[in-house]
């Protein structure tokens, strides 16, 4: 048995129990050991049976006898027993657990934990938890459970594995013992910190090994970078590049000059110019006679990229193709193809792909990203994200990637942001009306949900808000945009808003990505407290895309330092750091939606542990072959970002 062995290899675990364990994400011995208690029962108060006091919750260690089922006159089913120790005896009572008469035998050594209360006017131990055999007094771990899988069962299996741990674990064996079998409460947190380090260390080691393997791949068609033509392309742009764009381009050009494929993450706020940087990389691929694929998560964003790239490449006579479920092309001779998941179709036979650009990469699964990379012969990979990611999180999530950051937004006037309580709603609406009347402003109104939710009755739903706002803003024409609309209908709504036919667009957060409408100058967000700062910042980035002052109104009746931070901070990275400290990564991004690694122990807030784990992994990587147990864990990708 080793840490990567299936959990079924543990004696007594069959197929049915393995399925139950899978509900707790336990598949291997490693998973079982890292299924940590979420609390502990303190059974250290061991009382003599003859000295108990009513109201006490305590532990009694003794021998059980006379376990019988009793049927009362009113139909209740009781299980009665007696526990005896050196001081005397104490009655024990359970309710409706008929099987217990078969569980215990007279004279069994037991540990009982429960509360003492009166029964038939005498003290008795009522419905205690029990363990047969060796004493389990002390701090007893309580684990996350599922139907048919109790903490008692988990304790027994985990303790069985712990006995052989020194032989199978390259990690903190002592810390695992201390978490599962703690001697004192004070030692639990330090042990968890050691295990968190292990988890981060494994992630970093796996990422570094992936990076090492990636860099060992030799390109069959190495790029030649024509600096003069790149400078001509840049000189032809209708704007001046920022210093961070120039730095990112320099880093990418260096990557493209290598004999191994690039694997770089380009992070930057909405409007920071990521697409232009990607376009320069695509131009180099074009000059080398190879195609570029730009993969976007939505049709809206794919269409937006298609328009932007078509404009940038028009002076150079490079046609840009668009491939989505709505726009299928038969001529795949385009040098640059922009598309959604449709680009990954087996029907698209592309054999000259030299560069793959993946936008908002966390919205694609591992298999999809691998499929994109497989479209060419080890193509260069550039992934992009507008999701503000603190450096600590980026270092953890994307340890196998090189990182470029665009930390400035060219030519943008900061969006004035206000948190608006319910008491000022009417005044806010009147101000918006004046903006529409005097400046012909266009407005986004974003709501968290499409339909009304019975469990979240205070949250504005887009459809209900649309109906309400039609009455309030009766002089304006309103549009409605949400994720349940068909792609064709979405495009139609957006086209009408862009053309000015709609003055107000009511939407769900589907507008978070891909909409570029310079005439929209006001963003209204309902239920703002339900969003993370990163997402609010991205939504705010939908306005302020011209030289006209823009505004963001955060409607919330819950006083929040988080929301107030948006009034004074305009950097996505800064806001992400604030939210990380206040709420944690899961709340910021929504783990299931954004593909963040779901750690068992570590947290992205473990600022000090992350660089330490990285440094330790870098130091150990050259000697990984000498550590077979650790190497096997890494090769099994035990902890790798989703």
Automatic annotation (TrEMBL):
The keyword DNA-binding appears for this protein: yes
Single Gene Ontology MF annotation: ATP binding
Keywords: ATP-binding, DNA damage, DNA repair, DNA-binding, Helicase, Hydrolase, Nucleotide-binding
Domain Helicase C-terminal, first and last residues per copy: 431-586
Top-level taxon in the UniProt lineage: Bacteria
Tagged with keyword Lipid biosynthesis: no
Residue stretches making up the Helicase ATP-binding domain: 255-406
Gene Ontology process terms (BP): DNA repair
Protein name in UniProt: Probable DNA 3'-5' helicase RecG
Organism: Candidatus Amesbacteria bacterium GW2011_GWC2_45_19
């Amino acid at each position: 048995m080793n840490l990567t062995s299936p959990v079924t290899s543990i004696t007594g675990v069959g197929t049915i129990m393995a399925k139950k364990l899978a509900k707790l994400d336990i598949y291997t011995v490693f998973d079982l050991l890292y299924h940590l208690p979420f609390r502990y029962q303190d059974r250290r108060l061991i009382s003599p049976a003859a000295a108990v006091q009513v109201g006490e919750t305590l532990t009694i260690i003794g021998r059980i006898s006379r376990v019988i089922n009793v049927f009362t006159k009113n139909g209740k089913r009781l299980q009665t027993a007696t526990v005896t120790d050196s001081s005397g005896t104490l009655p024990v009572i359970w309710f409706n657990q008929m099987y217990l008469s078969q569980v215990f035998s007279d004279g069994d050594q037991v540990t009982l934990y429960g509360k003492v209360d009166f029964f038939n006017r005498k003290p008795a131990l009522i419905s205690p938890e029990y363990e047969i055999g060796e004493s389990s007094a002390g701090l007893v771990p309580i684990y996350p459970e599922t139907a048919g899988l109790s903490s008692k069962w988990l304790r027994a299996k985990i303790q069985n594995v712990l006995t052989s741990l020194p032989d199978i674990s390259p990690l903190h064996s002592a810390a695992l013992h201390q978490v599962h079998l703690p001697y004192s409460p004070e030692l639990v947190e330090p042990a968890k910190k050691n295990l968190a380090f292990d988890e981060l260390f494994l992630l970093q080691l796996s990422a570094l090994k992936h990076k090492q393997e990636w860099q060992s791949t030799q390109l069959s068609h190495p790029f030649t970078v024509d600096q003069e033509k790149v400078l001509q392309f840049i000189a032809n742009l209708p704007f001046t590049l920022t210093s961070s764009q120039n730095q990112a381009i320099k880093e990418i050009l260096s990557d493209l000059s290598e004999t191994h494929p690039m694997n770089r993450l380009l992070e930057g706020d909405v409007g920071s110019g990521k697409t232009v940087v990607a376009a320069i990389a695509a131009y180099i691929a074009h000059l080398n006679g190879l195609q570029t694929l730009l993969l976007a998560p939505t049709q809206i964003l794919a269409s937006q990229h298609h328009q932007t790239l078509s404009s940038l490449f028009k002076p150079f006579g490079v046609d840009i193709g668009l491939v989505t479920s709505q726009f299928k092309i038969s001529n795949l001779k385009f040098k640059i193809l922009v598309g959604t998941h449709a680009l990954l179709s087996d029907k698209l036979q592309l054999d000259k792909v030299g560069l793959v650009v993946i936008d908002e990469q966390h919205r694609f699964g591992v298999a999809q990203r691998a499929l994109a990379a497989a479209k060419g012969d080890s193509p260069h990979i550039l992934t992009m994200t507008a999701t503000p990611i603190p450096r600590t999180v980026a270092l953890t999530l994307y340890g196998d990637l090189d990182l470029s950051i665009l930390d400035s937004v060219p030519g943008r006037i900061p969006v004035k942001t206000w948190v608006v309580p319910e008491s000022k709603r009417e005044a806010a609406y009147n101000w918006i009306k004046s903006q529409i009347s005097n400046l012909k402003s266009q407005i986004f109104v974003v709501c968290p949900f499409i339909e009304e939710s019975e469990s979240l009755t205070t949250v504005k739903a887009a459809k209900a808000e649309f109906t309400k706002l039609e009455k309030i803003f009766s002089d304006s024409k309103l549009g409605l945009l949400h994720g349940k609309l068909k792609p064709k209908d979405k495009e139609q709504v957006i086209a009408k808003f862009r053309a000015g036919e709609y003055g107000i667009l009511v939407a769900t957060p589907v507008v978070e990505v891909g909409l570029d409408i310079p005439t929209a100058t006001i963003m209204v967000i309902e239920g703002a407290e339900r969003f993370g700062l990163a997402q609010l910042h991205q939504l705010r980035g939908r306005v302020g895309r011209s030289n006209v002052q823009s505004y963001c109104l955060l409607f919330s009746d819950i006083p929040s330092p988080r929301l107030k931070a948006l009034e004074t901070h305009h950097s996505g990275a800064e806001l992400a750091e604030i939210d990380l400290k206040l709420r944690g990564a899961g709340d910021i991004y929504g783990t299931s939606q954004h593909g963040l690694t779901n750690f068992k122990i570590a947290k992205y807030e473990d600022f000090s542990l992350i660089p330490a784990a990285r440094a330790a992994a870098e130091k150990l990587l050259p000697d990984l072959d000498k550590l077979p147990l650790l190497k096997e864990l890494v090769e099994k990708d035990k902890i790798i970002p989703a």
